[in-house]
Specification:
This protein is of the alpha+beta class. The chain has five helices and six strands.
Length: 134
């Protein structure tokens, strides 16, 4: 009699990694980068959101600002009513693609110490926000 070693039976194809598109929230309020800090804070208050997506005049997402960031600028001694949101954004991004895996996005957020990450399409248009669960 010959011994046959049994292999566990596969339950189907390998699991597909979750992507950012599976977990992102809707984009929420999007504002133009020429908006003032005071108006942006007002938009945030009326929308009851903790962050705003900032876009340029062509509708391309240039970044994300939080209420905390805007409040620091508003309360600073150098604040004037001429400061626009584009003046606050240091550098464009970071952004996630909807096909980015959740593992990659979580790693990027931890590395950069971000609470939220804009999700953009191949043209830079905002599709949503990936936010840490609270």
């Amino acid at each position: 009699m010959t011994m046959v070693q049994m292999q566990p039976r596969s339950t189907g194809a390998a699991p597909v990694p979750r992507t950012v598109a599976d977990a992102m929230e809707t984009a929420g309020p999007q504002v133009c980068d020429d908006m003032s800090v005071e108006v942006a804070l007002s938009v945030m208050a009326s929308a009851r959101t903790a962050h705003l997506l900032v876009c340029d005049n062509d509708g391309v997402c240039t970044g994300l600002l939080t209420q905390a960031q805007l409040t620091v600028v508003r309360d600073s001694s150098v604040h004037t009513d001429r400061i626009q949101l584009r003046d606050i954004l240091d550098v464009p991004g970071p952004f996630a693609s909807p096909v980015t895996t959740m593992t990659e996005a979580e790693h990027a957020m931890r590395y950069r110490r971000l609470d939220a990450l804009p999700v953009v399409d191949e043209h830079g248009n905002a599709l949503g926000i990936l936010a840490l669960a609270r």
